[in-house]
Amino acid sequence: MQARSAVTIRHPVEVVYGFWRDLTNLPSFMNHLESVEPSGDGRWHWTANAPAGTTVDWEAEIVEDLPNRRIAWASVEGSEVGNSGSVSFTPAPGDRGTEVRVELTYDPPGGTLGKVVAKLLGEEPQQQVSDDLRRLKQVLETGQVVLSEGSPEGTRFLRLLRQRPAQPVG
Questions:
Q1: How do strand 2-9 and strand 98-107 relate by DSSP bridges?
Q2: Yes or no: domain 2-162 corresponds to CATH 3.30.530.20
Q3: Are 105 and 84 in contact (CB under 8 A)?
Q4: What is the pLDDT of residues 74-116, one digit of tens each?
Q5: pLDDT at residue 134 tops 80
Q6: How confident is the model at residue 120 (pLDDT cuts 50, 70, 90)?
Q7: Domain ranges of the chain
């Protein structure tokens, strides 16, 4: 499965790159991630939420790091989730901040069935990456992720079932 998305964030490249480069920050805006922790030898241990209340773990390493320009990663051989990707940081035109572009390729657990289940549950990678970048923008520009009951996270099927019309406060 592949995904690509981009967003413009009103901060200098150095700030956006620095925040992303500290991989322990990723769960603050990537809903599906529980944690990203250093595991030694330049590797990182990732734990993500999976369907049916389970989690999935894998090891990945940074394979390219061009400060303030690009970070690329790949899961190590034998990982439960094979994946690779990159994030690029470029100055936005008109001194409007930083353009962040993410490209991701991964093999979901469960093969073809896993792909179908992910789409049915609204956890399709293209939507996830777009939602993650929207949340990154919120975290860096406002200091928090803004949520409302009327705009559930992404298009997760189970969240849409629980959605109800907006009600006035009080």
A1: antiparallel
A2: yes
A3: yes
A4: 999 988 888 999 999 999 999 999 999 999 997 765 555 555 5
A5: yes
A6: very low
A7: 2-162
Q: What angle do CA 87, 107, 33 make, to 5 degrees?
A: 60
Higher pLDDT, 126 or 11: 11
Note the pLDDT of residue 80: 80
In this structure, the dihedral spanned by the alpha carbons of residues 106, 58, 46 and 124, taken in order and rounded to 10 degrees, is 30
Using alpha carbons, list the distances in angstroms from residue 103 to 88, 120, 155, 161, 168: 9, 22, 20, 30, 40
**Whether the Cβ atoms of residue 27 and residue 34 lie closer than 8 Å to each other:** yes
Q: Long-range contacts of range 79-87, CB-CB < 8 Å, 24 or more positions apart?
A: 80/56, 80/109, 81/46, 81/48, 81/56, 81/106, 81/107, 81/108, 81/109, 82/106, 82/107, 83/58, 83/107, 87/20
Go through the chain and tell me how many residues it has. 170
Residue with tokens 């409007």: 96
- Is residue 64 within 8 Å of residue 56, measured between CB atoms? no
How many CB atoms lie under 10 A from the CB of residue 24? Answer: 11
Residue 26: both structure tokens together = 């990723």
